[in-house]
Design goal:
The protein is an all-alpha fold. The protein contains 4 helices and no strands.
């Protein structure tokens, strides 16, 4: 099993728990601001190794939440 398949399987399980709540998920203002800061640092070329790792983790979390929301949406339109 690949990591992509694992993310997909877990996203499906999360979506099935409460599709309405999963579709409504939004990042907090604090999280959004942190991601924006890290993206700006990366574009400027001044991002540290630790900050780059944090950005990658945020992006992985965003991918997971997007997968869960997409799967929840499918469950709601059936």
């Amino acid at each position: 099993m690949s990591i992509t398949e694992a993310f997909g399987d877990v996203a499906t399980m999360v979506a099935q728990m409460n599709p309405e709540k999963v579709v409504a998920l939004k990042a907090s203002r604090q999280m959004s601001e942190e991601v924006e800061k890290l993206v700006m640092l990366k574009k400027q070329g001044t991002i540290s190794v630790d900050e780059a790792a944090d950005l990658e983790r945020f992006l992985a979390l965003d991918l997971f939440i997007s997968l869960a929301k997409a799967r929840a949406h499918i469950l709601l339109v059936k």
